[in-house]
Amino acid sequence: MEWIEKWFPRTGKCAIEGIRLAVLNSILVGVGGTVVFLLFEAVELLRKSGIPIPLPVWLVMVLLIMPYYVLMFQYGKAFGALSSSRRPVAGFAVGLLGQLPSVLLLVVSIDVELYRYISSQVWRALFTMMLMIVLVAPVMVGLGSLDNNDKR
């Protein structure tokens, strides 16, 4: 957990902490996205060979995406503890700036028509999860920044 905490906010400035969150988000989405994509493609290969197993969407949601949301909330909480501004807009701005890599990944995957090269079921699951991350993670950072309990 130490390697993640070194990416946590050190100042209360929106732009600096938003960029720090964007770098952390790039690492997490890059590594996690690759693992999820390879897992889904492996399941798809097993399905094509005749083994009737479902895509492990709920497993990915519980083991990767829910902890990601908790991490985003904790990041917002750490930012809120350091920020002198009590405006809710500051935390949401950090969350939006931090999600730019996820938005960029989503836009590029649509632009290069990734759905043509992978299974439609895998594309639908990946697209839905990525869209969910893009929409919910900034809200989690914003809500974390408003949390007044047990500040660091």
Describe the protein's architecture and organization.
By secondary structure, the chain is mainly alpha-helical. It has one domain. Helix content is 76%, strand content 0%. The protein has six helices and no strands. The longest helix has 35 residues. It is elongated and about 60 Å long. The model has no long low-confidence stretch (mean pLDDT 87).
Features:
152 residues, mainly alpha, 6 helices
Q: How do the helices and strands line up, and which of them pair or pack?
A:
Elements: H1 2-5, H2 14-48, H3 57-82, H4 88-98, H5 100-111, H6 120-146
The level of helicity is: over 70%
Q: How much β-strand is present in the residues? A: under 5%
Weakly predicted, low-confidence segments: none
Counted beta strands: 0
Largest sheet data:
none
Q: What structural category arises from helix and sheet content?
A: mainly alpha
Question: What number of domains?
Answer: 1
* Intertermini distance: 16 Å
SSE ordering: HHHHHH
Shape: elongated
Q: Rounded to an integer, what's the Rg over CA atoms?
A: 17 Å
What is the count of DSSP helices, taking H or I runs of 4+ residues?
6
Mean pLDDT: 87
